[in-house]
Amino acid sequence: MSETPATDVPGAETAAPYASPTPAPADAARTAAAPARVRTVHLQRAKDAGHRFAMLTTYDAMTAALFDEAGVEVLLVGDSVGNTVLGHSSTLPVTLDQMVLFSGAVVRGASRALVVADLPFGSYEASPEQAVAAGVRLMKEAGVHAVKAEGDERFAPHVAAMTAAGVPVMAHIGFTPQSEHVLGGYRVQGRGDGATERLVASARALEEAGAFAVLMEMVPSAVAEAVDAALRVPTVGIGAGPATTGQVLVWQDMLGLREGRVPRFVRQYARLHEVVGEAVRAYREDVLDGSFPAPEHGFEA
Q1: Whole-prediction pTM value?
Q2: Rounded CA gap, 46 and 233, in Å?
């Protein structure tokens, strides 16, 4: 999953409006029953009970702690760190070493959420054995609770091998950013004759291989609904409509930290780019005119 350039997504050229919906009343029963640590079994129970869960990307201890405290059930250390933090134009340059570094920070910041880390490009595709080695490293060195791997049914053996080795796997189908050059750019997947059947078959194969959940990115809502209905395990959507058990967004998109157009599937709950910009400009002006630091910001001899 990546911070998708809106200009490359057909039908996504309009900026998502800022939204500040009225918070729903707290569900006391559900809050009281919240587990001390979210595990994959709790996501399955949500699917079975017809409930939903929220998932957000995060790449550091501070935002991980903030999102964890807010009750977000799943934190994704996405290889979107390449776009959002490291300044790359895609996720492809991200290394396994970098994922271990950022994932460890998130694990140390979160006390309740399930932490899932992306397997970066080049770390798992070659063989099931390579996938196991990468997954085990993320669990041993970073302490994550699960990994996410992009790919269709051709990667079912990789999922099976990781699961057998004790590495829980969230599968990722539909648009897979690591394959952007094969797919011809950032394009909605799952369109055309037979597309629904192919995605359903792919998801089922990954489920049978042991995936505890299937994430779908940038697929038509009706297709995602069909996939969700065909699976026992929970699904997660990003640009996949409302039928999935969980929803995930890149946090910088969701909180409006970057300026410009955003994908049509993003709802912005704040405009942090404006807030931070105004605060920094105010700080600079105070420094330049000498009003900061003031006497109360200093120490006596």
Answers
A1: 0.89
A2: 10
Max intra-chain CA distance, the chain? 78
**Which amino acids are annotated as binding site, given as ranges?**
79-80, 118, 148, 150
Active-site entry in 180, 217, 274, 285: 217
Q: What is the structure's pLDDT at 7?
A: 38
Query: What's the pLDDT score for residue 189?
Result: 79
What is the Cβ-side half-sphere exposure of residue 255, based on CA atoms within 13 angstroms? 15
Which CATH superfamily includes the segment(s) 40-255? Phosphoenolpyruvate-binding domains (3.20.20.60)
Residue that has been written with the tokens 């946090």 in this structure: 251
DSSP 141: I
Q: Cβ(204)–Cβ(210) under 8 Å? A: no
Q: Which pLDDT score is estimated for 27?
A: 52
Question: pLDDT per residue over 174-227, tens digit each?
Answer: 998 888 677 776 778 789 889 999 999 999 999 999 999 999 999 999 999 999
Q: Is 31 exposed, middle or buried (0-12, 13-18, 19+ CB in 10 A)?
A: exposed
Among this protein's residues, is 217 annotated catalytic? yes
Sorted by where each begins, the domain ranges of the chain are 40-255
Angle at 31 between CA 148 and CA 58, to 5 degrees: 30
Q: Are 223 and 190 in contact (CB under 8 A)?
A: yes
Tokens describing residue 182: 């094969």
CB under 8 Å to 212, separation ≥6 — which residues?
Answer: 40, 43, 44, 146, 168, 169, 170, 233, 234
Annotated binding site for 3-methyl-2-oxobutanoate, which residues?
79-80, 118, 148
Structure tokens at 264: 């049509």
Token pair, residue 236, equals 């997660």
State the binding site for Mg(2+).
79, 118, 150
For the record, the structure tokens of 188 come out as 């909605």
CA-closest candidate to residue 38, choices 60, 9, 68: 68
Per-residue confidence (pLDDT) for residue 31, from 0 to 100: 47
